[in-house]
Specification:
alpha+beta, 107 residues, 24% helix, five-stranded antiparallel beta sheet, 5 strands, 4 helices, globular
Length: 107
């Protein structure tokens, strides 16, 4: 079963992050790419209409997840394994520090 989340950049819906059986996919939305204020969410994920695919979790998104004692608190509160990076991203990154935040898509 795929897990997905909206990726917002400065409150603009920029793209979708997805985990499936093959790995991870990040896609910018066409509406965002056509927006005058569109900027890449990361230097490692430049603006493109071609989806990014990876067998491992994207380092940029991994960097949004808390570390240390905050990771332990988050994993305990949401009853997630600290190695479930996608689960943690979707659970705790809806109010990140910085320009990017993630909103889980419940499908």
């Amino acid at each position: 079963m795929a897990r997905r989340g909206n990726v917002l950049y400065k409150n603009l819906l920029a793209g979708i992050i997805e985990e499936n059986d093959e790995g991870y996919i990040y896609s910018y939305l066409p509406e965002y790419l056509n927006h005058l204020e569109a900027k890449p969410i990361s230097v490692t994920l430049p603006l493109t209409s071609i989806p990014y695919q990876s067998k491992t979790f994207f380092p940029f998104f991994d960097g949004l997840i808390p570390e240390g004692w905050m990771l332990q608190v988050a994993a305990h509160n949401w009853k997630l394994d600290s190695r479930d990076r996608m689960g943690l991203l979707l659970a705790v990154c809806k109010d990140c520090i910085g320009a990017v935040r993630i909103e889980a898509l419940n499908e």
